[in-house]
Amino acid sequence: MEFGTGNGYSNGNGYTNGNGHTNGNGNYNGNGHVNGNGKANGAKVVKMKPMDSELLREQGHIMVDFIADYYKNLQDSPQDFPVLSQVQPGYLRDMLPDSAPERPESLKELLDDVSKKIMPGITHWQSPSYFAYYASSTSVAGFLGEMLNAGLSVVGFTWLTSPAATELEIIVLDWLAKLLQLPDHFLSTGKGNGGGVIQGTGCEAVLVVVLAARDRILKKVGKTLLPQLVVYGSDQTHSSFRKACLIGGIHEENIRLLKTDSSTNYGMPPESLEEAISHDLAKGFIPFFICATVGTTSSAAVDPLVPLGNIAKKYGIWLHVDAAYAGNACICPEYRKFIDGIENADSFNMNAHKWLFANQTCSPLWVKDRYSLIDALKTNPEYLEFKVKVSHVHHFVTNIKEPSIYIEDLKKRYHIHVEYITKMTIRN
Amino acid sequence: MEFGTGNGYSNGNGYTNGNGHTNGNGNYNGNGHVNGNGKANGAKVVKMKPMDSELLREQGHIMVDFIADYYKNLQDSPQDFPVLSQVQPGYLRDMLPDSAPERPESLKELLDDVSKKIMPGITHWQSPSYFAYYASSTSVAGFLGEMLNAGLSVVGFTWLTSPAATELEIIVLDWLAKLLQLPDHFLSTGKGNGGGVIQGTGCEAVLVVVLAARDRILKKVGKTLLPQLVVYGSDQTHSSFRKACLIGGIHEENIRLLKTDSSTNYGMPPESLEEAISHDLAKGFIPFFICATVGTTSSAAVDPLVPLGNIAKKYGIWLHVDAAYAGNACICPEYRKFIDGIENADSFNMNAHKWLFANQTCSPLWVKDRYSLIDALKTNPEYLEFKVKVSHVHHFVTNIKEPSIYIEDLKKRYHIHVEYITKMTIRN
């Protein structure tokens, strides 16, 4: 692409803070401004360089300092950063123009805007005084990984579009599976057809496995029986389970959320589950999915995987273990017991963007049978076909969106963090 | 969280390249190493600071230079960067350990690893010689926006968790809608119930509107009629449309992909559509969704929105306009004609991560009736409830995943780019 450029605005230095190397050249990446009469007055044509290395260097350094200063101030002057944003709904509308600005602004102006208009609307999740949901969910390593990911701007929707993306994802998920002592059948190098794939969130993870399980059972019983399918969770199960089922066309009244109470520490009672299944079978329903949770979001309840797994096995039902909230803690040997019984699960998910210090969002999912996911979600358009045979790298196409864009930020995170993770003691 | 730290490994300088400020203090963010006998031998307890400002500053600058050098080399020594990765499937497995490394590595070691092991597996989408799919899909501004987003690590799954995230998304999507001259009913400030929301990709966008349209029609006709629902696209429509329908439980044989040929430049023939609808109605099917495309991925075909819109209106069918691939070009006045007829659409989507230089992924979606999306996809768990009334900021909960994590990177992008975007001439 090329632009005509005149000289109307191209001699200012606002855009790059005036430090010399991009002033006055009318370049897209410098401070030039393409005015309407560029071509008309015979201006020279300049090449667009969206990723100009020197502009990236200069402005990237400014941005690093901006972010580092934010964390410094958050630490040194907590009184200036109320953890919970104090703005009123609609506050921003009055501070911004009604239409997109007509002219570019300098980075300095833009960062001033961020400080004055955006910062008051930020709830400071990384503040040392933040204790809602889950605290301190990112890290310097996570941030650096995101930078590298965004900087290389890798697109990974097939193996060929950047082989490292697909391969690293698979390898690192094997590493993580080993740290969690997941059974061999969840490894891409295991004897079966298992493996891991990164989803955006636990909500996406439960959605894709509900779909995989749904299609597996419908293939057997015929798709007209969709209205007979039933699923099981507890009244502590995350709301995304219901959402996933509704997306997949499961009838709302067929979502059984079993009652829990303090007698089981709000874990799902296996007897209630088996009773519900028997009852449903007797009435002609088709039980096909159990969502067990290790650390529910609402109450940190832990469902008893061993008896639930036995029931799932007995009745041939897909057992998903949603450990999005707390599962990563099971890397610690003293907490591994909470996923004892995982051997009988068909899928397992946890969020690396919680206690593993990955940035939002990074939600590894492991499945025993990757073909169930691929069958449910594959697309094979001509423009994504390629000649290289990749079967032995276990190429997944399991995201509900085409792109799976994670690159070695994960690698970065685990290289640096693994030792800390394995040894850390989590304070109650 | 606190760690016991001994002195076994905590006096090295590997982790931060030994430049002084973090060496030898056993700090989590420095180069300390938590060994197993930390507590046993009475070591001091140090606080964990996952986002240590000075470590972030130091390592962030190193990372900026690494990325800037990559783009410099890509430009200056293209021979060292074959655009298409030349590795063989499985290449990475042999270069990495089987398990996660036990000890942290220095940033320098890690970046060496990236250069030697990851880079050969990268297909260089930002290379000036890259012409597949869509070229040069990011920019310095996009990168800086991602840095800021990752750096602040904002979580936006409700208004309260960072009001600026929700509000800025809505405002900027109004800006973009105005640039595209979308009809008033797609604006959050319009007379109706419309508005914009950012999805990850065009694939996600078509999924959420298929679900919204499905639930709208099933509410009317009863959910047992799901097997009667039919949808329409063309043989040029993106494969994600089929995938979205299958996820939503639409029967595969009810997906009508109408034949196109060179006589309509591979656009969907309105006569074929009307004929198919009449035929389906006569047989008792329920037509509920048309996916029209402006710039198909396979052939850049443009479906004729005006006649398709009239048909959709006549039969009360949801019309989605998938302009993921080419829609952003319609910001240019000379290309706006390609979305003439958008007035009769129920939803419109385009990808800002294509010609608008946003990083992957950023896919704005506008709908005429936001409640159709909210009804289909809302969740109301207790832990996401809050007391503030936000109705007048039009808070959407329309992502299929809970988090909608975009923050003012968009603002950044549009501030800087809007002038260029509106004036640019796209070379054929």
From TrEMBL, chains A, B:
Keywords: Decarboxylase, Lyase, Pyridoxal phosphate, Transferase. Residues 17-35 have a biased composition (Gly residues). InterPro entries: Aromatic_deC (IPR010977), PyrdxlP-dep_de-COase (IPR002129), PyrdxlP-dep_Trfase (IPR015424), PyrdxlP-dep_Trfase_major (IPR015421). Transmembrane segments: none annotated. Its cofactor is pyridoxal 5'-phosphate. The modification N6-(pyridoxal phosphate)lysine is found at residue 354. It comes from the Eukaryota. One of its GO terms (cellular component) is cytoplasm. GO terms for molecular function: carboxy-lyase activity; pyridoxal phosphate binding; transferase activity. Residues 17-41 are annotated as: Disordered. PANTHER family: GROUP II PYRIDOXAL-5-PHOSPHATE DECARBOXYLASE, TYROSINE DECARBOXYLASE 2. This is Pyridoxal phosphate-dependent transferase.
